[in-house]
Design a protein that fits this description.
Blueprint lengths: L1 H18 L9 E13 L6 E16 L2 E14 L11 E15 L2 E15 L2 E18 L5 E13 L3 E13 L1
Antiparallel strand pairs: 1-2, 1-8, 2-3, 3-4, 4-5, 5-6, 6-7, 7-8
Length: 177
């Protein structure tokens, strides 16, 4: 897993360096933050239901229509309770991911991210996991005051030793600074 993360970070660094000479936007760097809502999928939905939290994301225009992204977040998934008196504890996830957003037209974009996540609070989901968001679709709305709101739907997954894959369908709404 470490080799994959190191390779990805190296790839993003090389891409940014290669295109750093291109002057695309007046404001190449932006930052956004906002709440997230996640809905457990697959076998994870048997023990947990909805997740809530937030994330902050730094973005940098690499070339026209392509942004490199770095994201950190905190999500807590609510554990389910069953008649058999089995209560599942909440699961906290702290993802750190790097990725890219490509603008298809106007504010519509697609993207993907990968990185690492710190899982805690619930066996067997403890420790470090490979974090990835292979499918992100979003739209950046421009407000009347020339600020932007970023709305994203995505699939997040976390793969760790002994835990299998934790998956969730998520919604993110962020204010762009």
């Amino acid at each position: 897993m470490k080799k994959v993360i190191v390779s990805f970070v190296l790839f993003v660094t090389v891409c940014i360096s290669a295109f750093a000479q291109n002057e695309v936007q007046e404001n190449k760097f932006s930052f956004n933050a906002g709440p997230e809502l996640g809905f457990a999928t697959g076998s994870f939905s048997g023990t947990h239901s909805v997740g809530f939290g937030g994330s902050a994301q730094a973005e940098y225009f690499v070339i026209d229509k392509l942004k490199a992204t770095a994201t950190i977040g905190l999500l807590t998934y609510v554990g389910k309770s069953y008649i058999s008196s089995t209560n599942y504890a909440a699961l906290r996830i702290i993802p750190l991911r790097l990725g890219a957003k490509y603008f298809l037209f106007k504010g519509l974009y697609g993207g993907a991210q990968m990185g690492v996540a710190f899982l805690g609070n619930f066996e067997p989901y403890n420790g470090t996991a490979f974090a990835y968001s292979p499918l992100m679709l979003g739209y950046e709305f421009t407000t009347k005051s020339n600020k932007s709101i970023d709305a994203t739907i995505k699939y997040d997954a976390y793969t760790g030793t002994g835990a299998g894959t934790i998956g969730s369908f998520g919604i993110r709404l962020a204010y762009v600074f």
